Structure formats: structure tokens, C-alpha cells
Amino acid sequence: MALCETASVAVGIDIGGQSSKIGIVDREGHILGRSVLPADGDTNPDDFVAKLAEAVRALIASCAPDSPIAGVGVGAPNANFYTGCISHAPNLPWANGKTVPFAQMLSWKLDDVPVTITNDANAAAMGEMKYGVAKDLKHFIEITLGTGVGSGVVVDGKILYGSDGFAGELGHSCVEMDGRQCGCGNRGCLEAYASATGVARTAREWLDSSDEPSSLRQLTKITSKDVAEAAAVGDALALRVFDYTGTILGTKLADFVHFSAPQAIVLFGGLARAGELIYAPTIKAMNARLLPIWKDKVKLLFSSLPESDAAILGASALVWA
Amino acid sequence: MALCETASVAVGIDIGGQSSKIGIVDREGHILGRSVLPADGDTNPDDFVAKLAEAVRALIASCAPDSPIAGVGVGAPNANFYTGCISHAPNLPWANGKTVPFAQMLSWKLDDVPVTITNDANAAAMGEMKYGVAKDLKHFIEITLGTGVGSGVVVDGKILYGSDGFAGELGHSCVEMDGRQCGCGNRGCLEAYASATGVARTAREWLDSSDEPSSLRQLTKITSKDVAEAAAVGDALALRVFDYTGTILGTKLADFVHFSAPQAIVLFGGLARAGELIYAPTIKAMNARLLPIWKDKVKLLFSSLPESDAAILGASALVWA
């Protein structure tokens, strides 16, 4: 009997505005090593890609020197799976206002190892399907409730990319035609209400427009975590903020179910940490709006991936897809 | 050289509350023969299926006696592609309040010829893709604006059926949380506004709540066609009804684009006949809400299938899919 060949591993990279996280991940989702490349304001994509490739090589050398590299998966804002490009990403100075053929560039710098990229929300959905709570699901929608609202739609075990690779921008669904200003330039998008930022904004607006007592009044800057902590100890205004947010979120989730008939919706990201506070009003509103064929049948789940690892795991899952 | 074999044909059936339409269709979409089976109130599915099978046999005998039958495609309300069942269809007395294994039953009655069923809106999308304006498209959404609002979502050349076969119920997306009562039991669904019925309802509500002069006042029963005719000759209220309806429709279409990133949206059915009256406000509202990556890029088209043939063509297209 021949000796086992060294099992191949994947590189997962999560590119963000503050830093890029790199991980070496085996097929079972064990992270064999991690490193972080802080953003240092590069405006030239060549410079950034060269530093990233160097960091990848260093990490491989330190924790998986003998393992064949099956490929590199990258999750990044405005990354397009079809084209391999990152376009007009305002938080990445090297990709702001331009289109960067990122996958191709990184592949060249890494001796032509295959590089696959997708946007961060799709990467989260990939990770959930490969290693998380969606392991046994072929139809689900992952909703990332962070600074914004991202989404990855999975249909029949595959990310829905649509005609151009950009499908699944559910955070910009319309909640209210003349509603709150959203970062996208439009008004009334889901993201303006059901993100961590949206929760803080609702609390601030309500505090400013009333004299209702609330422990949140003593804070100069309010985060969604503050609102969750206040709600957890019974602050009435904070509790209503979650009720309001969940009602909006659940209503839109019902729309999404009507579109792609998933088995479950998976919540991920900062606001999901609020647990029951966001779950209860969301599932109630979702079921209230679902057509009878789906009422009480579509699960609302929380991601089971550790938040610090999810992005790396999700990116690495692209390699094994 | 051998003689050409007779080309096979498909049977397309459109089942409705008033009647069922049957057509024999060749691969190129030519309808070789048609017949209509009026509904006669059957409450037993066996009775209905027996009559339908007999009508199919008679039509084949009269117009394609020597052609091999490649299969039967059926479009029907609440028909499920995965299970072959028609469930709880209120307008079909033989399928009201129960689940009928329709495809299997009809296949048995027709000597085991394969029978494929789907709901009527999906059938319309199939027909559009095979024979209509979506011939060259792999990603589009067909919206049927009739008594209700139906939809068929096409992703990568295939109908999106989701986990259970019921995906694509876009008519029940939420326009306004506490809005108009919808036939589904909920409030504020798109169907309550942007259907032919919705247009007539808007006109009636506006006439009842104001003294504004309008040629529609002389009518006791208003249809969407009446509103379109009044708008066409400059009736201000009727024109505003279309503006209002199109604004709502376009806003929701943008949501749908954000979901599946189609190349086009195709409008079909009664309200689509209003042409420019519905097109202008709809495309304006859609583009106003689309993220920059899609603004002015997603086409809004009208179905190119003759309305009387669309259902039969769509159903028959299931056979060649």
C-alpha cells in the first residue's frame, strides 16, 4: 500500500478596508494557520497584490510547506465571480473608481495557482454551506447584518450569480419608497434599517424625537451592541427598536422566500449576535407575510461559523466548490 | 436515402377556471391544431382528467394522427413541476382543497406519454424563452399582469423552482405593510396594485374619494382597459392611475433585479396591453431604484407572443426543455 499523499489545502483570503485576513484551510474546514495584512493605503493594485502574494507565500511556508495548494479563494467587496475583477470598491483605495482584474493578477504572482473571487456575502454563504449551519441545505439565503446588509442566495447548492455575477443585493431592496437615506444614494433600502448601523440609527432618532427615559441617553455614540445590552435588561425603547427592526427584516425576508423558495434563511454578522431579540420579531413578521404554502415552514437560523473565522472559511470554500 | 421520419410534436395544455385550452405544437412553435374543453364543474379529478385525455386524443386524431407525441406540457394554477401535483387551486373545483397527482393521472390516461406540469406564470416564461422576446436570453423574469400578478424567474436558461417547486411568487411581494387587502389574505401585496384588477381598483378608489372630473365616472364597472382608453385620450385621473401603478411596479422590479440580476424583465398579460402608458412610469421607477451597476442596463420588454396562443405555446415548451 502506498503512503498517503499529503492532502492539498486551500488558501482563503478576506479582503477588507482595514486589513486582509489570510488562512490556510484543509478540506474539513480546519484553519491550519492565519495571518493578517494591514491595509497601508496602497492606491496601486500592483503594489497591493504583490504584498498580498508575499504574505500568502510566507503563511504557506510557515504552516503548510509540503501541502499542495488546491487554489486560492477570495472574498472581497464588489468582487465578481464571473470576471475575477474587483470594481469601484470605495473602501479599497487600490480599487476605488477603477476595475482591477484581481484574480488574474494574484494568480500570476502565485505561479498560476487558480484564484477564485466572489463578494464577501457570497463567500459567507459558501462557508455556511460547506462548514456551517447550512451544511445539509441546497436552497438557502445568507443575510449578513453588519455595517450594511449583504446577502448570498444559494439555489440548488450553488450561489445565484445572475447574468452578470452581481445577483443577491438584497440589502438594497425597498422597504419604504421615500424612507431613510441609504449609503447607495437611494432611500428606504433594507440596509438603512436592518443593519447594525440601522439599529443604532433608529435608537438615536427615537431618543432625539422624544423624552422617553432610556439608559441609552447617557451614551454619546450608540452602537447596535449598546441597544442590545439595554434591551437585554428591559430598556423599553431599546426593546422597541429590535421589534421595529425585526418587523422590517421579517417582512423583507418573506419577499425573498416568495422569490427563491429556500429551505432556510441564515442570519450572520453583528446584528445576529442580538439572538432572540432580533429573532423573535423577525420570524413573527416573516410568517405573517408568507403565503400559506410557506408559513411556519421556512427556517430562520443563525450562522454557526465562528465570526472571526467565517470570512476565511467562506473564501476557502470557493476552492472546493 | 431513407425517407424523413415524421417529426414529433408536443401537446400544450393551459388549464383555467373557465376552460382548458389544448394545442398540438411542433418544435418551431407552430400550432397545428387547437381545441377548448369548457369547464363543467367536475369536482372529481378522475372525471376531469378522463375528459381532458379524451379531448387530447381527439385533437391528435384530427390534426396530427401520424406524428409521434414527444410529451404533454401543462400550465395550471398551483401546479408543481417537482411533484406533478395541482394543490388547493380554488378556481378548479376538482382541485379545490385537495392535492391531485395530475401529471401522473393524465399520463396514465394517455398510455404513459410523459406529462410535465408547471404553474401558468412559469409556462408563460418557458414559452417566451422558446418562442418569444426572450429567445436569446438566459436570465430574465416574466411578469404576468392579469387578474393577479404572476411571475416566472429564469436563471441560466432554467425556471427557478426553489426547494419545493413554488419559487417565483413575486405578486405577493410587499409594497406597503398595511396596504390594500390582497386575495391571498395579506395586505399590501404587489398584486393588489399592479394587476389589471389593481388598476381598476385604484381608479375606482380615486373617483370615490374626490370630485375630479373624469370620463370614467360614467361607467358603473371599470376595467383596466377602460382606464387605459381614458388615459389614451388624456383623462388626467386615468393618466395618474398609470403613473401610480407603474411607479409601484417599477420599484418592485428593481427589487427583483437586485435579487437575480436578469438581463431583462418581460411584461405579459392584460395590463401589458396598455403599452407606453405602463412602460414609461415603470422603467422610470425601476431605474430610479436600481443600484448603479444595473441602472439603464436591464431591459423592460413586452411579451411578443400572441396572447391567445401564449399559454399553449408555454405549456408545450415544457416538453422540449
In words, what does this structure look like?
The structure is a homodimer of 321-residue chains. Chain A has 321 residues and is of the alpha/beta class. Chain A has two domains: 111 residues, Nucleotidyltransferase, domain 5, CATH 3.30.420; 172 residues, 2-Layer Sandwich (Nucleotidyltransferase, domain 5). In chain A, 37% of the residues lie in helices and 19% in strands. Chain A has nine helices and twelve strands. In chain A, strands 3-2-1-4-7 form a five-stranded mixed β-sheet, sandwiched between helices. Chain A has a five-stranded mixed β-sheet with strand order 10-9-8-11-12, with helices on both faces. A two-stranded antiparallel sheet of chain A has the order 5-6. The radius of gyration of chain A is 21 Å and the shape is globular. Chain A starts with 8 loop residues before the first strand and ends with a helix. The model of chain A has no long low-confidence stretch (mean pLDDT 95). Chains A and B meet through α7 of A and α7 of B.
